[in-house]
UniProtKB/TrEMBL annotation:
Protein name, per record: Molecular chaperone DnaK
Keyword hit for Hydrolase: no
Basic and acidic residues compositional bias, start-end: 26-52
Keywords in alphabetical order: Metal-binding, Zinc, Zinc-finger
PROSITE patterns: ZF_DKSA_2
Length: 125
C-alpha cells in the first residue's frame, strides 16, 4: 500500500502537470464549438505561395498529432486524479491487485499493474 504522503505529492505533481498541459493545449489550439472537446488545432498562415502552403500543411499536421497526444495525456492525468479521490489509486483496473509503488513513481498515471500491462502488450503484438 502506497503511503498517503507519497500519494499527496503525486497528486500535487499531477495537478501541476495538468495545468501545464492545459496551457500547452491552449497554445496549440483555438475554441471550436463543432468539436467535442471545444478545441481544434490552429492552422498557421504564412502566405499563398506553394512552399508557404506546404509549410502550413506540414506544421498543421504536426500540431494535430501533438494535440491528440496532449489530450490523451490529459485523460490519463484526470483518470489518476479520479482514482486518488476514490481511494483506488494503487489498484489495478484489470485484476484488482496492487500497483507497485515503484511503478506509480515511474509512471504516475499507470492504471494497471506490471503483470496485467505485460499481458496486454503481449496480446497486442
Amino acid at each position: 500500500m502506497i503511503d498517503e504522503k507519497k500519494i499527496e505529492k503525486i497528486k500535487k505533481d499531477l495537478l501541476k502537470r495538468k495545468e501545464q498541459i492545459l496551457q500547452d493545449l491552449q497554445d496549440l489550439s483555438k475554441k471550436d464549438t463543432h468539436e467535442t472537446d471545444n478545441r481544434t488545432a490552429k492552422f498557421p498562415e504564412y502566405g499563398d505561395k506553394p512552399d508557404e502552403n506546404a509549410q502550413e500543411i506540414s506544421e498543421y499536421s504536426t500540431t494535430v498529432v501533438t494535440e491528440k497526444v496532449i489530450e490523451k495525456t490529459l485523460e490519463e492525468i484526470d483518470g489518476a486524479l479520479d482514482r486518488i479521490e476514490k481511494g483506488i489509486y494503487d489498484v489495478c483496473k484489470y485484476c484488482g491487485g496492487e500497483i507497485s509503488e515503484k511503478r506509480l513513481e515511474a509512471r504516475s498515471t499507470a492504471s494497471s499493474c506490471i503483470d496485467c500491462k505485460t499481458k496486454l502488450q503481449e496480446e497486442n503484438d
